[in-house]
Amino acid sequence: MSVPLHYVVKTRLVEVVEGLGEGAALPPERVLAKEFGVSRWTMRQAIRELIADGRLRARQGQGTFVATPKLVQPLALVSYTEALRAQGHTPAREVVEFDELPADAVLADRLGIAEGEPVHRLERVLFADGQPIGLETTYLAVERFPTLKAVLDPTGSLYRCLTDQLGVRFGEGEELVETVIATPREAELLKATQSLPMLLLHRTSRDTAGRPIEAVRSLYRGDRVGFRATLRP
């Protein structure tokens, strides 16, 4: 089976990227195409794939640069803040929405409440070292957490607030990971193009008694974030 030319070029281009080092500018597309003996279209395809892989980053009006290594997040019931700080990064959050809405049938089932009951919705852009990497929306039943708005700093750690101030003890969670394309609104919030692959996580967390705590939808930039899980037999 023949290998597409742009894939061959991409493989060779990885060696160039590794030789340049983090943050270095990639030579212009036309220069690389001439050096590799391929068309600019083929070179453009190879560069686009390396951008999608997180190896390169395009800056509008400036060029293409070698990207910093991806952040690797654990698939575990841990605080986003603590996970990033443990890797030497500075976490931050920007609140988009913090309101209440009636639960639809799917959300009600995940939270163990009746359809139409009110839920807190907290939507935030997640940052690492000042760069947006994810968009997280968390839903919690108002009946279970009536004082949430009064005690939570929405720019801080929700996990820490639930455990330290509201006495919640996380027991287990279920997480589904899939790849998606962002909506125009999501792409704008994450300062990304709609063509950039995204990783979408759906998580339902439960306490030590098996009672649902939260339902979470997290959208991450595929060029900035990867995930790691520990598997045991």
Structure description:
This protein folds into 2 domains: 62 residues, Winged helix-like DNA-binding domain superfamily/Winged helix DNA-binding domain (Arc Repressor Mutant, subunit A, Orthogonal Bundle), CATH 1.10.10.10; 158 residues, Chorismate lyase (3-Layer(aba) Sandwich), CATH 3.40.1410. It contains 8 helices and 10 strands. It has a 6-stranded antiparallel beta sheet with strand order 4-5-6-9-8-7. Helix 1 packs across helix 3 and helix 2 crosses helix 3. The longest helix is centred in the N-terminal third of the chain and has 16 residues. The radius of gyration is 21 Å and the shape is elongated. The two termini are 36 Å apart. The relative contact order is 0.14. Keywords: DNA-binding, Transcription, Transcription regulation. This is GntR family transcriptional regulator.
Sheet of most strands: 6 strands, antiparallel
Distance between the termini: 36 Å
Q: Indicate how many domains the architecture comprises.
A: 2
**Cα gyration radius (Å):** 21 Å
Structural class determined from secondary elements: alpha+beta
Can you give the helix content as a percent range? 25-40%
According to CATH, what is the topology of the largest domain? Chorismate lyase
**Which overall shape is indicated by the principal axes computed on the Cα atoms?**
elongated
Are there runs of 5+ residues with pLDDT below 50, and where? none
Order of helices and strands: HHHEEEHEHEEHHEHEEE
Individual helix count: 8
CATH superfamily membership of the largest domain: Chorismate lyase-like
In spatial order, strands of the major sheet run 4-5-6-9-8-7
Overall pLDDT: 88
Strand content: 35-45%
Strand elements, count: 10
Q: Based on the structure given, which CATH architecture of the largest domain is correct?
A: 3-Layer(aba) Sandwich
GO molecular function: DNA binding; DNA-binding transcription factor activity
Keywords: DNA-binding, Transcription, Transcription regulation
Pfam family, one: GntR
Protein name: GntR family transcriptional regulator
